[in-house]
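Notes to self after the Tuesday call (sharing in case useful).
The group wants a holo model before anyone commits to mutagenesis around the pocket. I volunteered. Ligand is phosphoenolpyruvate. Logging inputs and output together so the record is complete.
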Amino acid sequence: MPTLLKGIPASPGIAIGKAAVWTGPAPGTRNRPFAGIEEELARLSAAVERSKAQLRDIRDRAAVRIGKSESDLFHSHLLMLDDPVLMDPVREGIRSDSLCAEEAVDRAVALLAGKFEAMQNEYLRQRAADVREAGGRLIRNLSGQPSGEVEMRGAGVICARSLSASETSQLDAARAVGIVTAEGGATSHAAILARALGIPSVAGVASLLAETRDGDDVIVDGSAGEVLLRPGEEALELYRRRAAEESRARAGRTADDGPAITRDGVRIEVLANISCVAEADAALAAGAEGVGVLRSEFLFFHREAPPSGEEQFEAYREVLSRMAPRRVVVRTLDAGGDKVLPGWQGAPEENPELGLRGIRLCLRNEALFGCQLAALMRAAAFGNLAIMLPMVSTLEEVRRSKEIIARAGGGVRVPLGVMIETPAAALMAEELAEEVDFFSIGVNDLTQYTLAADRGNRQVAHLYQPFHPAVLRLIQRAADAAIRRGKRVAVCGEMAAHPLAAPLLAGLGIRELSVSVPFIGAVKASIRRVNLGEAGELAEAALKLGTAEEVMRRLGGARE
Ligand code: PEP
Ligand code: MG
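Result:
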């Protein structure tokens, strides 16, 4: 029986393939007879070497495909296999308790992971998973099991409860044609990586594992957030045609890096939201006119301490020079909320989305902020840099940041902007516009804070409505304030890429959209269909409506 499952669109595009249900790596055998101290120690060192070779290979491939910051995760697993804190108790178990190597590893891993799990510090608590992952690999190598990479018997659609960032980053887009997960959302790490890798994906499909059998035919519509199981020949044929059309359109779009000009001759710039250095090339290939948001927090993940100024300088310089002379807006560290920076963020928070996030965290930690700003200012010479502050809610935050920027810049001046992603920032847009050179309206967070609906919580997903008139009225207020003062104003966040958004946003006066790389071509195409006179009337009408549904119906009707 065909079954339609609904989830959250995580990465666009259509994928068709056989379900490869992934329940995690095989655990490996623990119990085998003890073969004597020397023999077990020799088996252990051979398995350590094999594991290290696998991890080096994964790390190097990940560094090329998605960037160094993501690949550092595997480096930390590598270091663990040389760390006496883990390895001494393993050898001790073999020598003193006559355990076989598998059992000795198992016991040492459980002990160390247990210690990490009991810790207060979030970063150290998360290290427990790394210890288990590295230990699991070692045991699989000892017992001759497959190495634990996501196993694929051919091209297929990965169906899993959840995929870690490390598992996602190892996937090969030629074999993993689609990804469906029971957990997660559009802004989870795995979703952002799937988009960077160009793999269609749907997240948050609660009944996925109950409904799916290994080898089932599956259609993934990553744009609609739909998964069709056992679809039957007719639906397969329909989706094959749609996938072929999409791929033709993509090929066409790749060649089309011309400007997006409305039917009545007004240019609207289309830029890319990117999360790692390697994505800059994909953005250029897709026709991006610059980078509207470089989410710099991705440089700071998977590591025990913040990256040094030198490391940051190299990463910013790389993106700026690849994109030159196009504009690159680097958003300063936006950690906190669902983007936890383990280790150096202080105590866990009861309500992190309303806690020490974005600019609040940076102002609390001026050394960290100053180091990032100094690296950016040094890199400014290599391209067309602008700096943007995230999660601003007060004027004082901007004024204080400007003092720190002036100190870090040593005379260098680059345009400064703020994200408008809190209702306070939208309501204070007049005053903020006096302080900065540009705005970028972050509709992902603006929606969550305006409608008080956590963007990652499936229970309130029905309230998370970027097209709600309350959100639109705040966008209008911010856009008007910027336009009146001759300041640039962009919209970033997922809404900018929605097929109904271009006429609405153009009608509100927006002349710059920044979207995930896979959407660049489609957004340009939809701008080219806009007539600004009609768009202005449409936006005016939408602002007066009472519900998101009415707005979407009005926009959908106007498109037909
Ligand atoms: C936003 O909030 O709209 C945005 C672009 O930032 P992020 O998704 O990184 O929070
Ligand atoms: Mg945001």
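Two things stood out.
The pocket of phosphoenolpyruvate (ligand 1) is lined by residues 187, 293, 295, 334, 421, 442-445, 492-493 (CB under 6 Å).
The first strand starts at residue 3 and ends at 6.
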